[in-house]
Amino acid sequence: MTGALLLGGTAASLALQNPATAQIAQNEPGAISAAAPRAGAPMSFADMVAKLQPAVVNISTTQKVTVQQQANPFAGTPFGDLFGQFGGGGGGAPVTREGQSLGSGFLISADGYVVTNNHVIAPAAKGATVESITVTLQDRKEYKAKLIGRDPTSDLAVLKITSPTPLPYVKLGDSTRARVGDWVVAIGQPFGLGGTVTAGIVSAVHRSTGQPGPFDTFIQTDAAINQGNSGGPMFNLNGEVIGINSQIYSQSGGNIGIGFAIPTTEAKPIIATLMKGEAVKRGYLGVGIQRVNDDIAGALGLPKDQGEIIGRVEPGGPGAKAGLRSGDVVVAINGEAVTPDRTLSSLVANAAPGSTIKLDIIRDGKRQSINATVSTRPSDDQLKVINGEGDDDDGLPDDDSGAQATPGSSSLGISVQPLTPQIARSIGVDSTVQGVVVAGVDPSSDAGQKLKRGDVISSVNSQPVRTGADVARIVAAAKAAGRPSVLLNLTRGRQVNGFLAVKIK
């Protein structure tokens, strides 16, 4: 699903009111109650939209993009000068071109603070720089905007425009009160068409899209959201901003009725920090995690959707110093349960760097508690380096270096062999990794759908394995105990290790 997500939404922030002006929020209770449609199936959104639309703006940027030209293939020939005149020359020298981006946003104060998505005002490509940002109001007045702050992790940004008169604005509501089935209205600037209003319902709350990081909780809606809606507000029928339209799920680039908005409750503290010109700091444990899905829960004998499992512990990181181990299942932080709605990433991110948190974990089937002092979460780019993201090519020599594959377990549908230093080098895994390497899989088995040749299995059901006999023994014990599957600690190429539940045949 993540691969088909397209940026296309909005951001939110704290509303500020300048006491020196008489301007009030466009969605003050007294101003909007008479205009809001009655509860249930509304006859029209027109009166409500008329009050709210003036606070929604168009945001455009002008950018300079440096492009590396291809070298003139006819250089040194009689045709070299001719083709050089038409863009084929230049010896591959870079050229600078102009670019633009369009999106939406909304005013949150009478003195000109604007909230939008970070991706709306960020460079659109590698080598691009943003030259200027323009905010256009509904009355077509244009203002040059100053970037006050941005946070790529949450995809939020705050701009500031200056006007001689107070500006129309809206306040943020409480997104925790949104319920599936509630009416919502989205206002934005899709495809640069100008103010566009769409309506629908809340399709889901606490929706996870499978993206890594601490901010993967969205409000899902079927209100039409398209490219260019990014940064625009999602309103409830009280005229409150409950979401910032941010992404769409689409295989064509157009709306198919699945859009996502950043909940305002998640956005408020971030926007408050950005408005002060400060960087957003988040807690960090230095661990790789996975959700405990049905298969993993079955392999561990745990209830489903209870906690998240530690797949990797960064050496020297806060988690390692606290004694966390690969295979630990974290079920609560500071007494708050880890669930699909409140993930481990989000709970840790909300902890202040330098603070101590209490983690309730399940290790070897027993519950215990440990304390960890969180550090400051690195940037997304730094995390990619730490996590060793890369390709997952097999890399295993065709002849397996002459080694004979031994049956790992016919009950799993795989054959394995001991991982030697030579094989480790050929498949690109770290020299510190130990285990068995998958030499073959039965395509008709569950393993055949999940594993591939060259995968390294370090443990099965938290027990280290070094030979095929080790794997067979542990699988046989799990089968005798009535377990439907076993949990493999897996490493694939240069990627970080993680856990995978595989059904027993």
Your description of this structure?
The structure is a single chain. With 505 residues, the chain is an alpha+beta fold. Among the domains are: 2-18 and 41-55 and 171-268, Thrombin, subunit H; 283-387, PDZ domain (Pdz3 Domain), CATH 2.30.42.10; 400-503, PDZ domain (Pdz3 Domain, Roll). The protein has twelve helices and 29 strands. The chain is elongated, with a radius of gyration of 27 Å. Pfam families: PDZ_1, PDZ_2, Trypsin_2. GO terms for molecular function: peptidase activity. Residues 271-365, 408-493 form the PDZ domain. Its EC number is 3.4.21.107.
Summarize the model shown:
With 505 residues, the chain is of the alpha+beta class.
What's the helix and strand layout?
Blueprint: E1 5-9, H1 29-32, H2 46-52, E2 56-68, H3 80-88, E3 94-107, E4 113-116, H4 118-121, E5 128-136, E6 142-144, E7 146-151, E8 156-160, E9 183-188, E10 196-207, E11 218-221, E12 233-235, E13 241-249, E14 259-263, H5 264-275, E15 283-284, E16 287-291, H6 294-300, E17 308-313, H7 318-322, E18 329-333, E19 336-337, H8 344-349, E20 356-363, E21 366-373, E22 375-376, H9 380-387, E23 406-409, E24 414-418, H10 421-427, E25 436-441, H11 446-450, E26 456-460, E27 463-464, H12 468-480, E28 485-491, E29 498-503
Antiparallel strand pairs: 1-13, 2-3, 2-5, 3-4, 4-8, 5-6, 7-8, 9-10, 9-12, 10-11, 11-14, 12-13, 13-14, 15-22, 16-17, 17-18, 18-19, 18-20, 20-21, 23-24, 24-25, 25-26, 26-27, 26-28, 28-29
